[in-house]
Please model this.
Amino acid sequence: MAGDGTAAPAGAAGGPGQRRKELLDAADRVIRRDGPRASMNAIAAEAGISKPILYRHFTDRQGLFAALAERHTAGLLSAMRSALALPLERRDLVEAVLDTYLAAIEARPQVYRFLTHPEAADGLGPGRPLAPALQKIADEIAASVRRHVDLGAQADLLSETWGRGITGMVLAAGDWWLAERPCPREEMVRALADLLWGRLAAAGQRPVAATGAAPREREPEE
Amino acid sequence: MAGDGTAAPAGAAGGPGQRRKELLDAADRVIRRDGPRASMNAIAAEAGISKPILYRHFTDRQGLFAALAERHTAGLLSAMRSALALPLERRDLVEAVLDTYLAAIEARPQVYRFLTHPEAADGLGPGRPLAPALQKIADEIAASVRRHVDLGAQADLLSETWGRGITGMVLAAGDWWLAERPCPREEMVRALADLLWGRLAAAGQRPVAATGAAPREREPEE
DNA sequence: CCTTGGTGTTACCTCGGGTAACCTCGTACG
DNA sequence: CGTACGAGGTTACCCGAGGTAACACCAAGG
Model:
């Protein structure tokens, strides 16, 4: 708001929102270091100021969170939008989108952990299971589905459900992948694309009875 | 452990773990009322005792959480296991599993919200995106997939990924459904099953530019 | 009788979000 | 030149929540 300090005592005299940007940078650093649990004290300390200033710029923790999230969301979201707009065959498009997301969380895990798993009092309320960033991604996906795919009468319900569902799927799988690194990224992309592509339906039945024992259990790893 | 008070001043003198069970009941009530943010103070008050007793029975908040979660997890998990063990065609099995989950969260939203969205310091650590209950469900799904579906060389990676992915998908979609109630349960089940069933791949291209219009290939709903 | 062990309580510590009151310094104006 | 004022900043505090220490009560047992 009235943040255009004419002569800042400690810092660079830049534009109007300069100070705010610096604070966000500091918060970013702390979060990158401590994760989403970073305390306001820590952020203020990192910024070299004291808490009340922080609270003058961002009403409360939620406000800072929101501002910070919005900033990064912009990047992630535009990346996703770009991916969704690529002139690709549908399957390739799906893979591109998945890869874009995974690449993003791979590049800055802490930041995206913060984006995707807010502290439950920060970004999301009682019935708000998806963080705002993910919510927006889900909306983008839903819109893209509705735009490209002919789903008949239930198009709206299906696309919204799928948007959320796909987002949640990639979120969960992506988090796991990030934590365990069970495989390179491309494999993960293919695994998820395969799932979305109906491989669960198409794959053959294993030669196993309902409750009976399987003949041969494992086959060599390629 | 040593909780068999011979003459309890306020309460029933039951078995050894009686008191513990009562405390869990109280915690349950509070959580059902206030959601997962319930404070230890509130729980103690609801139980009619004071905090230290609570802490004598459950080491810390995480301990209480874990005990409480385990209790409900048992129910949810066994329901899921039963569903996964039904002697159904694969598609029907998927629908049964989805329906089981949605029915469960529909029946006791607060409890399952607590199970599925722990307070980020309670049930899950830095790289632990899925709550324990969901983690177990994911494992069950993965095992079931690995057991029933022939996935070739990458079976392990695929099944684990899918387990997590499906769980995350249902979680996100289920939360949204619970919050918005956009449709009856069966429709939701079908929407999600359709997604898992490759309808995204199979549905016709919509007559829109970008990649050129495709011949309409959709088949009528139902 | 005094001791011992279990059950409970109050009162406290710490830490984090959020705020009130005060302080300081550069500037504009009498 | 001196003083009033306002922007920007600080210390010190409040409150609530997790967690604990020290003390109080009561029954059994030497």
About this structure: Residues 148 and 167 of chain A are 18 Å apart (CA to CA). The mean pLDDT of chain A is 83. Residues 2, 5-6, 8-9, 49-53, 56 of chain A lie near DNA strand D (CB under 10 Å from a C1').
